Fold each of these.
Amino acid sequence: MSNAKSKSATPKTNIKKMHNITLTKEQYHALLKIVYLGNWLANAIHDDTPEDKRLNEYDQIESIIFSYAKHFGYEQYVDPKPSKDGKYYPTRKLEEEPQVIDIINQYNESTFWDEFVEHLAYRDFNNHYNRAQIRKMSQIERVDTIYKYIDKWADEVNTNGLNNIGIVDNQ
């Protein structure tokens, strides 16, 4: 009989196993920007009031990644010491890095037009059909009809931007 313990005999604990990731300096730089952008996307819309809390889990992960900035030679992107709350925060240099700004601007531009077109399409759809008519449509028919409005508005804004958009005074 062997004295070696089997793996199944190992007691289960609530301790989470830590893992290491090996990154080059360039990969860390990309990770720094990705984490900043991801947290920006997740939390920029929240004002941290009791009704509108930030996603703290994302803040914590960002702080962990930021804590390695000095080690990788990117201390100019992260405040060198944690703040009173123990977290590391980005410096203005990271927030204003051209690639970061370009990504945010591209995202905002794309999101604006997509949302604008979709809102106009749903408005027109709901103005054209009453609730009873909409309820009679199959899901496929409803989606196809909405997409006709989306396509119409997408064509319009792709061709003319906001030039033909205005407020009509019906008085």
Amino acid sequence: MTVQSGNGTTSTGRMALSTGAASAGSSGAITVSTGTGTNGTGGAISMTVGDGDTGSGGSLTLTAGKTTASGASGGAVTVTSGAGDTSGALRMGSAVSPISGLVTVQSGNGTTSTGSMSVGTGTASAGPSGGVTVQSGNGTTSTGSVSVSTGAASAGPSGGLSVQSGGGTTS
């Protein structure tokens, strides 16, 4: 089944998929999924912004909902690869271009405090855990720097910086 706006000369039509607003309760959810394959694979889901030849390319934005309730958290954004004998890979990066784009992963700004950030591998119950590599890419004229630092504090101590290996039975 195909649902699309019509073709146009100067622009194409806009398309919206949304649930209505609720004046005294929760709004409805939207589920996009493909069916299960019995003697084959499950169908893929692809979200792609169309190409253009004037100005910057179109953006793709995924944003969880905010809340105005006191003490409550905004909605989470969860991206998880599929399970299997080996789980699927999770890749995030900028496209290959003459000058590749910046990739930024950070917690948001806050008034009283900011969120923590953790980069690590999972625990292995019967084997070695995965490694963590932080490095700059190769270059012709020079390579990029790698910087690890804590932020400055205007009214208190700055955070510590700790690098250590885990314990083991043999070295």
